[in-house]
């Protein structure tokens, strides 16, 4: 209610006024009708009859207009609530410092329900609350009328609604539990449907003929979802059918009694019309009251998920008053760092000790799965170490302001994202303060060696880098975007990482794996310039590009097994020397083991 009140206060006030009117209008109509009939069946005073008929017509006209006004107010309230609810939800999600929640299926299920219930819940509570108010007023008004005519009629009609309320509330609990239970299936169904229409996936799916396998699985998920809905719908059908029969039987008995009373003269013809209108209206209003109460109940049960996400605390501990992050002076230290992704998973890092000096370049080498990217994620505080600590000039990262820390670090990952946005936006995501600063954007693109490519695009830096959307809002304009090559995308990701002029720590995790030899050489020369005078960490399987690092560490099975300069490590003739000579042999046929 608070969310809806914040989003659309005036619309809700108008909606409330109309609901009160709509709740009392049937009562006014029934009484006016009774009075008209009684006037017509007694000595007729035409002026009275015309006055009453005019009032009846006026109320009738207003009643005809109200549903249209309510429909508009309801839709407008829903639109406004949607804006506020979605903004609050995604702002809350954006506040998560780390990645853990995005890898937790239970949390992702909850997030999905939160989105659906956050969008529709507040509107349903307002609609349900006002609908229930309206129905309540109708019930109270007519119950008073029925009490005047025969107290037991009022009591019978009201009691007949009891079982309906109990049954509907039990059904609503079941429905809310079912929505939570099918969350996984719904997410999987969305995953398959997104995959089957994804331009990146289309290539492999067509070549490997894997489409039918995936859409059959998608249809399987839809069947699971349908089964769950069907079970509840059938239960609802039987329960509501039975209750409708009960209501009809009660109404029939009351009608018989009323007609009999009119024949014996204890009720007037107008009274008969009033009882018929009252019983019908009370039953309809009670059904609507129960329906609205149940809708509100269910919306609130599901809205719990929305509140749980919006009010969830940080996923990584953040001090109440976190320390500011000063420029890096001495270096970043990993002190006896142990890490595993979950308690039931194996250790990925086992007692790593490493200092990245504030003005030096450190390189990490290791086989696939050795833990290199994990180490980078800990440095960026996307996770906290399970044991040990990462220290920024001696201060634990957990003590520092995470936002300020992120502004001092820039990283280029091997799996950098290609955003379906313009070239300018793709680079500006690295530091959004530069989005309207073409000089900074171009400088970053030049550093990454991608300026010439972007400059020649049809709309230069404003060219859309995707073909899944039109370039502008005008769908009649046939211009769509441009698709870059893998290496060009990688250079764009490097530009994004280099947009911030002087990060304290620059991390490059396999930044050039998709570049041709010439581009790689050129980009690494520029990167060397950019890294000068600040802490940098390089991760690469191409050992040639790491030769000039001040310190190279070899990570194996989560431990540092060798450390030193390139020359030291070659002389030591250990794991690094073995990997290096294997690669070198691939390029020089003269080296033993090389290509013939
Ligand atoms: N999010 C995650 N959840 C669980 N396990 C993970 C996750 N990310 C990585 N791992 C596991 O951690 C181990 C180390 O992975 P990591 O990505 O750090 O290796 P890497 O040295 O960077 O490998 P590569 O050279 O292939 O990029 C692997 O066994 C991997 O399966």
UniProtKB/TrEMBL annotation:
Membrane topology summary: Multi-pass membrane protein
Gene3D superfamilies assigned to the protein according to its UniProt record, in alphabetical order: ABC transporter type 1, transmembrane domain, P-loop containing nucleotide triphosphate hydrolases
Keyword Cell inner membrane: no
GO molecular function: ATP binding
Limits of the ABC transporter domain: 332-582
Entries under PROSITE patterns matching the protein: ABC_TM1F, ABC_TRANSPORTER_1, ABC_TRANSPORTER_2
Residue span(s) of domain ABC transmembrane type-1: 13-298
Residue stretches spanning the membrane: 12-33, 45-70, 125-146, 152-171, 237-259
Keywords: ATP-binding, Membrane, Nucleotide-binding, Transmembrane, Transmembrane helix
Keyword Transmembrane recorded: yes
Main location: membrane
Cell compartments where the protein resides: Cell membrane
Protein name according to UniProt: ABC transporter ATP-binding protein
Biological source species: Plantactinospora alkalitolerans
Lineage of producing organism: Bacteria, Bacillati, Actinomycetota, Actinomycetes, Micromonosporales
């Amino acid at each position: 209610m608070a969310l809806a009140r914040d989003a659309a206060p005036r619309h809700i006030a108008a909606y409330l006024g109309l609901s009160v009117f709509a709740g009392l209008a049937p009562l006014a109509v029934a009484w006016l009708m009774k009075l008209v009939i009684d006037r017509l069946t007694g000595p007729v005073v035409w002026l009275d009859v015309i006055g009453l008929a005019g009032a009846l017509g006026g109320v009738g006209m207003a009643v005809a207009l109200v549903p249209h006004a309510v429909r508009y107010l309801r839709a407008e309230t829903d639109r406004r609530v949607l804006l506020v609810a979605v903004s609050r939800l995604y702002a809350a999600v954006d506040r998560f410092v780390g990645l853990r929640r995005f890898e937790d299926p239970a949390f992702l299920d909850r997030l999905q329900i939160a989105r659906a219930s956050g969008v529709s819940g507040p509107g349903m509570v307002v609609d349900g609350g006002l609908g229930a108010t309206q129905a309540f007023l109708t019930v109270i008004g007519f119950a008073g009328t029925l009490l005047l005519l025969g107290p037991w009629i009022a009591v019978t009609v009201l009691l007949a609604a009891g079982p309906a309320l109990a049954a509907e509330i039990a059904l609503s609990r079941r429905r809310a539990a079912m929505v939570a239970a099918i969350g996984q299936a719904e997410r999987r169904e969305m995953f398959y449907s997104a995959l089957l229409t994804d331009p990146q996936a289309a290539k492999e799916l067509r070549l490997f003929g894997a489409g039918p396998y995936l859409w059959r699985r998608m249809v399987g998920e839809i069947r699971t979802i349908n089964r769950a809905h069907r079970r509840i719908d059938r239960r609802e059908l039987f329960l509501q059918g039975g209750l409708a029969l009960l209501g009809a039987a009660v109404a029939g008995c009351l009608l018989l009694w009323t007609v009999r009373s009119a024949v014996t003269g204890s009720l007037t013809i107008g009274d008969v019309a009033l009882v018929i209108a009252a019983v019908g209206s009370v039953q309809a209003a009670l059904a609507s009251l129960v329906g609205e109460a149940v809708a509100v109940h269910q919306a609130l049960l599901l809205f719990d998920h929305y509140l749980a996400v919006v009010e969830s605390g940080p996923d990584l501990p953040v001090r109440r008053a976190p320390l500011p992050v000063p420029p890096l002076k001495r270096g970043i230290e990993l002190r006896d760092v142990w890490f595993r992704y979950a308690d039931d998973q194996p250790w990925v890092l086992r007692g790593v000790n490493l200092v990245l000096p504030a003005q030096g370049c450190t390189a990490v080498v290791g086989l696939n799965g050795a833990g290199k990217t994990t180490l980078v994620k800990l440095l960026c505080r996307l996770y906290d170490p399970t044991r040990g600590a990462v220290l920024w000039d001696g201060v634990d990262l957990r003590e520092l302001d995470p936002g300020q820390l992120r502004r001092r670090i820039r990283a280029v990952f091997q799996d950098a994202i290609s955003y379906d946005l313009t070239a300018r936006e793709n680079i500006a995501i690295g530091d959004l303060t530069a989005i309207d600063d073409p000089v900074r954007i171009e400088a970053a693109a030049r550093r990454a060696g991608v300026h010439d490519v972007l400059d020649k695009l049809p709309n230069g830096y404003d060219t859309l880098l995707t073909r899944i959307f039109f370039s502008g809002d005008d769908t009649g304009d046939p211009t769509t975007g441009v698709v870059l090559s893998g290496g060009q995308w990688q250079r764009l990701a490097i530009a994004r990482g280099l947009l911030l002029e002087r990060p304290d720590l620059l991390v490059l995790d396999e930044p050039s794996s998709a570049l041709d030899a010439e581009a790689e050489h050129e980009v690494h020369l520029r990167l060397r310039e950019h890294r000068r005078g600040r802490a940098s960490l390089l991760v690469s399987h191409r050992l040639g590009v790491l030769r000039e690092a001040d310190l190279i560490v070899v990570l194996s099975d989560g431990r540092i097994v060798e450390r030193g300069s390139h020359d030291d490590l070659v002389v030591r003739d250990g794991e690094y020397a073995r990997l290096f000579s294997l690669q070198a042999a691939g390029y020089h046929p003269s080296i033993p083991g090389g290509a013939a």
